[in-house]
Amino acid sequence: MKNEKFLKLKYWREYLNLSQEDMGVLLGYSNVNYCGKEKGRTRFSLDECFTIRNALNKMLKKEGIPAMTIDEIFEREHMK
């Protein structure tokens, strides 16, 4: 997973006005640790993926946006 970033995850986080610190709190660690995961420096565990998916889908539902799968949220883009 090195040299990949999670641009869709970042997009939805920003769409919902969530900071990296907010996401870190959701997962129980610092914004620095979360930032490293979002940028692909360290891996998300499967449990973290489920936690993020559930939280984002709950917030997106309030916006009238259909639920997304883990694959949709965590689609990666290779950095050049």
UniProtKB/TrEMBL annotation:
Keywords: DNA-binding
SUPFAM superfamilies associated with the record: lambda repressor-like DNA-binding domains
Domain of life according to the entry: Bacteria
PROSITE patterns: HTH_CROC1
Keyword match DNA-binding: yes
Residue ranges occupied by any HTH cro/C1-type domain in the UniProt entry: 9-65
One Gene Ontology term of the molecular function aspect: DNA binding
Keyword DNA-binding (UniProt): yes
CDD domains found in the cross-reference section: HTH_XRE
Protein name per its UniProtKB record: DNA-binding transcriptional regulator, XRE-family HTH domain
